[in-house]
Design goal:
heterodimer; A: alpha/beta; Rossmann fold; six-stranded mixed sheet; 10 strands; 35% helix; 24% strand; globular; B: 298 residues; mainly alpha; two-stranded antiparallel sheet; 2 strands; 1% strand
Chain lengths: 251, 298
Amino acid sequence: MLELSEIFVSFQGTHVLNGISCSVSPGETVGVIGPNGSGKTTLFNCISGFAPRDKGTITLRGERIDILEPHLRARLGLGRVFQNFGIFREMTLLENIQVAIESRRDQSAGIFPWSKRTREIAEQALGFLREVGLERKANDKAGSLSGGQMRLLEIVRTLALGAELFLLDEPTAGVSPRMKEDIARSIKNLQALGKTVLIIEHDITFIQKFCDRIVVLEEGRVVLDGTPERVRNDARLQEIYFGKDERPGIS
Amino acid sequence: MTSILEILTSDYGVHLAILVSLYLILAQSLNLTFGLGQLFNLAHVASYAVGAYATALLSTDYGATFGVCVASSITLSALFALLLGVISLRLSTDYFAIGTLAFSSVISALLINWKSVTHGVLGVPGIPRPELFGIDFYQNGNFLALIGAVAILTQAVFYLLYHSPFGRSLRALAEFERAAASLGKNTRRTRNIAFCVSSAFAGLAGSFFAYYLNYIDPSSFGLGEMVFILTIVIVGSPGSFWGVIGGTAFLVLLPEPLRFLDISSAYLGPMRQLLHAFILFAVVWWKRDKLFPQRRTV
């Protein structure tokens, strides 16, 4: 599904990603962890097209995407959920979903607000909101939602876009424990739909529930790549997070 | 009551209605870029000038018909925006405002100094009113019917634009450009289209302005005029379709009662500008958080 080969990214002479190579199979869920500054979000930005790479290639379903602009990558099935909430707060929940549906290649958009096609898209959008229990707030501004609801909206919006590969950047950051469960359900739903998911997350306990693999980054390099069980028990993970001599359990 | 009716049906009332119609086109078109697209576009008055001069010069120097003049004004203003957009839309917000202001100054300088074409500060006199279906548009009532119809049509076009997929894309990228791009929106193209459409309608307004006054000169297209159009959009609430309609009526008509006060005309103009400045200042202060929201990024 996704193939990263020798990706180098630097900002003003500082090397942030130092030759990352990694591949993700269709339908696989991969967790990306690592200490702050290890390059996790930069990796997602590079895949999405927001951080220019110095070297390396990225292919999505066999097609090179590193030479494409972000919107073209999105149209090829790359969906992004942002760390700091990528929803449009001034728009209603329904409009947030409509914007995504109207971008789909396989959907024509209605020009007039009263046209049949526009009504169909609104119905479709309402269906997506229903999936995450937000249909009652369809006409509220998205900015009025709680942090967890915003995440759910963003995930379901990316689903409405028709994305096949989901990049979820810390989906549980700033979210209540109860909403965390709802987000976990959403991610499991993506898996059930056969979507490929990459998740940046600090909480290993949370992601190991649904990750097939975990990739650990340190200083812009992949230092560990394996099953959650293997990564969790690897001594290097303890070193990366806590230093060489300390051995506390990882939450 | 009778006196209000008399004013409304008098030449003065018709003149005010024509002005409201003209500014409805100008303000609603600026609202597309400044309001919906959050582009601090200070070249709107330059597009207005391009449209006005296109009509003025084509109709006086070449005897072009109404249709040709209006179409040329719209096209040239859109092309002006295309050129400006290629350069300015690469700039970030503050620099974009400066870039468009610079372009506006260039147009102003051209209008004054390119005398062989624009007639310089003397302006273009003798612009004939349109000739259509044998109707005498020198009658202001008839001209009002024409510009009123165009203004209503323009509002309808912008209403549809605001509620169309394009309008949603523009609002989305104005709020969070990267999120819009990650939803497959071509943000650069969307901005360029908005800029061209906005400019084209400013050109349309310019064309009617030239036809209405029968005379134009560079002084009508200065920074003061730009600030006035901007004030309408800000008072009406940027991005609000109905707000801009209300703002236009309010600001065009507000200073009119001053005319009936026993004040020398030497003070009347400055008083009007002071009033506009005060309103702009008050509204900007009152709505400062909403007017200049923080741009979001990853």
